[in-house]
Amino acid sequence: MQEDTIAQLVELLSLSRLLQAALVLAFAWLALRIVHLGLQQLIQRFPRYRLQMGQIFPVIRIFTWFLAIAFIIFGIIRPPQTIVFAVLGSLGLAIGLAAQGGVRNLLAGVMMIFNPPFRVGDMVHFGGHYGEVIRLDLSVTWLRTLDDNVVMVPNAAVLDNAVANANSGELSEMVVVNIDLPRAVPIQELRALATEAALASPYTFLKKPVSVTVESRYELGFLLRLVIKAYVVDIRLERLLSSDITERFIEAMQAREINTLRADSADLTAQS
Amino acid sequence: MTHPTHKAFLTPAADVLARLYRAIFRLFGRQTDEQTEPTKIQADLCLALAARPALPETVLQAFAAEPLAAGDARFIARHEQLDRGLAALELWRAGRGSMIAVTGPQGCGITSFLQQLAARAGEHETYRYGKLTRRPYDISDTMVLLNAAIGCEQPRGSVEELVEYLNGLTPSVFAIDNGHFLACRIMGTDEAIRVFGAVMVATQQKHLWLLGCQEYAWRRLSYVYQAERYFSDRIELAFFSEPELGECLATRLRGSGIGLDVATGGEQEPVPAVLARHLSTLQKLSNGKPDLAFFYFLNSLLVHAETKQLDMRAAVTLDFSALKQLTSEELFTLAEVAAHGQLTLTEHRAVFRVSAQESRLLLERLYHQCLLDKDPNAAEPTYRLVTVYSDVVTRYLSNANFLY
User: Fold this and answer.
1) In B69-138, alpha helices (H)
2) Which of A175, A193, B156, B354 fits a disulfide with B358 by CB distance 3.0 to 4.6 angstroms?
3) What is the pTM of this model?
4) For A146-159, what is the mean pLDDT?
5) Does CATH place domain B321-399 in 1.20.1560.10?
6) A200 neighbourhood in chain B, CB within 8 Å
7) Domain range list for chain B
């Protein structure tokens, strides 16, 4: 019985069928390449919609490969049911035993297609890493971190951990800048300066509000923390905006001769 | 020997195949040997700007892209906007002053519109047109500019004094142009904007304030200072529609003294036939922006020396590929220049926090690519978008998410 099955399998995988299958795979690859290049051209022409266009390709890729493989099996090889069941059974056992994590990742990938927690171009906290999603595969997600490292995160992480998405498909995202100051500084004046610094940065997205709040902290002495919240015009400029606001704020303090060191010593004197 | 009918069939087929071949190559990011199609010749920006069309002086003068004075016959369309302006004038006559913003993209004709409203004010009514000549940086600066804009002969030094002076005047219409100078991203300038607004708000019961402001500057004033909440109406000026553009071009063409209606026995057609044939292309190329339409029109226009008959050749489009080569720094610079209306070297330094050399390098590079224009009369180098195609640049910046 087993020998019959093997003989049938060998017969099914004739050279012409293998060539046809290879041709279908090559055609699927070429079609995907053309779609990918076409989308890249569109993204270059309409950068404002790069996130929306970027999310289309992973779905197209998976469906194309799925259709190609289904066509090869049911349109070219056309195996009898016994072979299908035998192969599926063996494959299932082998995959189940050898690649538990891999199957889990695949399942998570399929789940992410139908219920996407993020898309290509989003800034996410995922699998312990923070960065821009640059590629979505069926089993892994590729992130580019703020340090310009490319990190591969298994999709199964989405089943086990929370995912934080900073922009949810929009190009702008909130950037939080914390500035710690001694307690004796003129709060109102500095709050106004911080607001102005955030509004003056060319990377701030003015359509959304800028807010500055003050928190009291204790770290080897009492401190004041200015929390500046502003939206960046493009997620890729997140660090640039953060640095720009901080620099503008410090320069403005220096221009107004608000000496934080002096204020610090005054604060310490007051405490003693 | 090829049969003529075969040839007639083969030529378009070969053309289609050639187009397909080029399209596939372009898709893969490669250039074919044949760089351009003969129907799509593109002109270098700098050369096109420098070239002067070989046309009679009267034609060139008729198409000069300058603001139109009150009552100028070349002012066309804008009926709905004028009605809204006149409604505001009526309310003011009835004792209800207010603040009206007149906004639109650069080169849409805000100055001309404000001038036309002056022509509609009564003989014994006071309509004062003034403009901001530069950007105010602080409170005293704003007071100087405001005093000049409203024509105050004895300048007042404080907000209270100026408000008192204005409330002592007979009810007037104050049209303040170049409001884009108020939208500024330099730290420390927000007080100047608040002072300007305070004077207008405190005197609006008596006077009608009209503020002309470019679109992107107005948006910024609205995002940051909620400017739209203080204005009772905003009159938006858009570029011309195709029929309006046809009327505009025909009016100017007739004003140039060329006998357009000879062929029709002196009977005036709304749009002369020679123009009507190319109007759709002109509208598409210029997006209805008058000065860009004039540019394309004059470069396509042919006036026969002897017969004085008009003809038009296919428009040669401008080549904006330089925009695609710009870095994000350069695109941000263009965006800030567009939103501010113009930037001096010092202002650019303050906005981007870069050294004088870096600022000069960046701005001069954009100037030499003919994406920026430089004011030769200004004390300090001052850069603005090249007015003729500012709309093309701002649309590119908006699409690339640098301007909003």
Assistant:
1) 79-93, 110-120
2) B354
3) 0.79
4) 87
5) no
6) 185-187, 351
7) 1-54, 79-236, 249-315, 321-399
Query: How wide is the angle at C-alpha A206 spanned by C-alphas A200 and A208, nearest 5°?
Result: 135
Q: Do B353 and A248 touch (CB under 8 A)?
A: yes
pLDDT for A245 equals: 96
The verdict on a CB contact (< 8 Å) between B352 and A202 is yes
Strand-pairing partners, residue B385, are B372
Asked if B220 has any chain A CB less than 8 Å from its own CB, the reply is yes
Name the pLDDT band for B267 (thresholds 50, 70, 90): low
Touching check for B27 and chain A: CB below 8 Å?
A: yes
Fold topology of B79-236:
Rossmann fold (3.40.50)
Interface probe, candidates A34, A199, A204, A211, chain B, greatest B C-beta count within 10 A: A199
pLDDT digits (tens, 9 = 90+) for B122-158: 778 889 999 999 999 999 999 999 999 998 888 898 9
Percentage of residues in chain A having pLDDT higher than 90: 37
* E-state strands within chain A: 123-126, 129-136, 140-145, 150-154, 164-165, 173-182, 211-218, 222-232
**Backbone CA torsion sign across A40, A46, A47, A52:** negative
A34 to chain B nearest CA, in Å?
8
| B12, B336 Cβ separation under 8 angstroms | no
Which residues, numbered 184 to 213 in chain B, qualify as contacts with chain A under a Cβ-Cβ cut-off of 8 Å? 185-188, 190
Confidence of residue B10 (pLDDT cuts 50, 70, 90): low
- Residues of chain A in contact with residue B28, where contact means CB-CB under 8 angstroms, are 37
Tokens of B199: 């004077």
ipTM higher than the 0.85 cut: no
Q: In chain B, what is the greatest distance between 2 CA atoms, to the nearest angstrom?
A: 93
User: Whole-angstrom Cα distance, residue A126 to residue A118?
Assistant: 10
